[in-house]
Automatic annotation (TrEMBL):
The keyword Oxidoreductase applies. Its cofactor is Fe cation. This is 5-demethoxyubiquinone hydroxylase, mitochondrial. Fe cation 2 binds at residues 129, 181, 217, 220. Binds 2 iron ions per subunit. Fe cation 1 binds at residues 98, 129, 132, 217. Belongs to the COQ7 family. It catalyses: a 5-methoxy-2-methyl-3-(all-trans-polyprenyl)benzene-1,4-diol + AH2 + O2 = a 3-demethylubiquinol + A + H2O. HAMAP family: COQ7. InterPro entries: Ferritin-like_SF, Ubq_synth_Coq7. Keywords: Iron, Membrane, Metal-binding, Mitochondrion, Mitochondrion inner membrane, Monooxygenase, Oxidoreductase, Ubiquinone biosynthesis.
Length: 256
């Protein structure tokens, strides 16, 4: 994470006070998380969907076969029903969010892509969002999580938001990025706080991905601030409108 993003998250006067505690707790574990990210290459063998009875049997046999001292050092083999439900919501909303982000940048690029100053910035951020979406497309299949049923709506809404703000000017486009990434960065931080409570092999990989993407989103936020986001006309009004829309989208896509 960049020094700016770290200061932003830790500042008591930061835009997102809810992220402060999460970031403080994350600082202590970031090294371990980064290490696990480098080694997290194996595909998941456990899903967040309900396990079959045969796999449950195998897991019980595995537990019974393990010595007591050895078993006490192992991570739990199964996630609880509540944990699976929570993770399914997280993955669904993250995939929907990355989908929306892609279409926001697509809309902005359609209007401002030829601008020599802003065009390359939008392309760079959009490229990162493409990686984010591809990753969650893979995760949602890997863990057999139901994707959002509102995909067409998020695509249209994202494009309209991106193109609409870009038509208002470069500063408004950056204000859109500032608002969206503020909410998404905080959203990922909230998820990290929950994921840190779960000790399971499947979670190590997901936690590391969420942390990496959180850092990317905060870099996008920093880019927007560096490129006059707060000079947009009616910045406060525009920013609050977009933030509330993002929060509503997060809630809806976690359920639908
Ligand atoms: Fe993203
Ligand atoms: Fe982003």
């Amino acid at each position: 994470m960049t020094p700016f993003a770290r200061n932003f998250l830790l500042s008591p006067a930061g835009i997102r006070s809810t992220a402060t505690g999460a970031c403080q707790s994350l600082r202590g574990c970031s090294t371990n998380v980064a290490r696990s990210f480098m080694s997290a290459t194996r595909p998941s063998q456990h899903t967040f969907a309900s396990s079959s009875s045969s796999s449950e049997k195998e897991e019980e046999e595995a537990r019974a076969g393990a010595g007591s001292s050895e078993a006490s050092e192992q991570k739990p083999l199964r996630l609880s029903r509540e944990q699976r439900a929570m993770l399914a919501e997280m993955i669904r909303v993250d995939q929907a969010g990355e989908l929306g982000a892609n279409w926001i940048y697509r809309g902005q690029y359609a209007v401002l892509g030829s601008d020599k100053k802003v065009g390359p910035l939008l392309q760079h951020m959009w490229d990162q969002e493409k990686v984010h979406l591809k990753t969650f497309d893979d995760i949602i299949g890997e863990h057999r999580v139901r994707p959002t049923a509102l995909r067409p709506f998020w695509e249209v809404a994202g494009f309209a938001l991106g193109a609409g703000t870009a038509l208002m000017g470069k500063e408004a486009a950056m204000a859109c990025t500032e608002a969206v990434e503020t909410v998404i960065g905080g959203h990922y931080n909230d998820q990290l706080r929950e994921l840190l409570k779960i000790d399971h092999p499947d979670i190590d990989k997901l936690r590391t991905i969420v942390q990496q993407f959180r850092d990317d989103e905060l870099e996008h936020l920093e880019t927007a601030l560096d490129h006059d986001a707060q000079k947009a006309p009616n910045h406060e009004l525009l920013s609050n409108f977009i933030k509330q829309g993002c929060k509503l989208a997060i809630y809806i896509s976690s359920k639908v």
